[in-house]
Specification:
Blueprint lengths: L6 H19 L3 E9 L2 E10 L2 E4 L4 H13 L10 E7 L5 E6 L14 H9 L9 H33 L2
Antiparallel strand pairs: 1-2, 1-4, 2-3, 4-5
Length: 167
């Protein structure tokens, strides 16, 4: 089921949900860092409770909207952001956002698959000046690998046909 909310509506729902969640857990501040490329997205959240920063398990009703935010905020010609920081202090209850469309996403010990870089450019097209070098290189390397594999499959298919025809 696709989310039909605009990016602004989604941010409003996330803001209200985070404000409620912070009050529920007694938090002073929440920070969520998100990275994405292609179909892969990852986020990690931290909450400050009693002056102590700890890993946060934000309610699904809030994070499900966060999971759609990247696609909702695509900019024509610039594509989708690849890094985003959302934060809120309970004192003002205002959601803040900082995004980067050019930063290479860091998925930690489990990097995104090679095809995700090509998928990124297919799903979220960018004008040439907004395709960072790391994205262009990885997408091109994947396309070359895909072409090599197709040539190998075709060569194996021809060889099998020749072997069958020679019996």
């Amino acid at each position: 089921m696709r989310n039909k909310m605009s990016a602004e509506e989604m941010l409003g729902v996330i803001e209200a949900g985070l404000a409620d969640w912070l009050k529920k857990v007694g938090g002073e501040r929440v920070d969520t860092y998100m990275v994405g490329i292609g179909l892969v997205q990852h986020h990690v959240s931290w909450v400050v409770i009693g002056g102590v920063r700890e890993s946060a398990d934000i309610d699904y009703e809030v994070t499900r909207h966060m999971n759609h935010l990247r696609a909702a905020q695509v900019l024509p010609g610039r594509g989708a952001w690849t890094w985003c920081h959302l934060w809120m202090d309970v004192s003002d209850g205002v959601l803040h956002q900082e995004c980067d469309w050019m930063r290479e996403p860091d998925f930690g010990s489990v990097p995104a698959g090679a095809g995700e870089y090509a998928i990124e450019l297919d799903r979220f097209p960018r004008d040439p000046e907004f395709v960072p070098g790391w994205l262009a290189e990885r997408a091109a390397a994947y396309e070359k690998r895909k072409e090599r594999n197709a040539r190998r499959r075709e060569a194996r298919r021809r060889k099998r046909e020749q072997e069958r025809g020679g019996d």
